[in-house]
Every structure is written in structure tokens, then in C-alpha cells.
Design a protein that fits this description.
By secondary structure, the protein is mainly α. Helix 1 packs antiparallel against helix 2, helix 1 packs antiparallel against helix 4 and helix 3 runs antiparallel to helix 4. The protein has a domain of 77 residues. 18% of the residues are buried. The protein contains 4 helices and no strands.
Amino acid sequence: MEQREQLFIETLKTTVEYMDKLIAGIEKFVQQSSDIHLGNILEGLDWTIEAVGTINRYRENAIKEKNINDILNQMLEGIENNDDILIRDILEYEMVPILIDWRKSLSKFLDN
């Protein structure tokens, strides 16, 4: 296996593993059952979005990035307005389903 392909596979594995942790962290944050801070979640989302962008550059349109910018803008509005309910709803009902879809798409590459 060529070095570039091997790096791609390692990036996929790392991203899938990280998404599992991020989804679990979001679910705990939404349920207010942990001391996870929104800042940690935002950092995790930033890393994940960057990873997806890198993967899509290597394999064109490997993952549909959907309307992620719209969702992030809604979250920013919630943050600016200190609207915890909006932030938690966006994370739970919009962001988690996208992350789950992305994870499934990435897992398909690893299964092949």
C-alpha cells in the first residue's frame, strides 16, 4: 500500500474513533449529565469538520458536508444570545445525525 493511501486509511480510522467520542460527548452535554463544556464540543466539531474536508480533498465527495455552515451559524446565534436550549437542540437534532451519517460514510471506506 502506498504511503499516501496508508495515511488516508489512518486518518479515516482516527476520525471515526474521534466521532464516536464526540457524539458521546455531545449526548452527555445535551443531557447535562457531565461537566463537558461547550468549548470542548466546538473544538471537537472544528477538528472533525477539518478532517472531513481533508478526506474530501483526497477522495472527492467522500462525505456529503450537507448544510454544516448553516447549522454552525445557528449555533453561533444561540451562543451570542446565551440560548442554551437552542444550542442543545441544534447539537442533538441537527449535528448528531450529521456526525452519525459521516461516520457511516467513513466506515464504508474502512470496510472495503
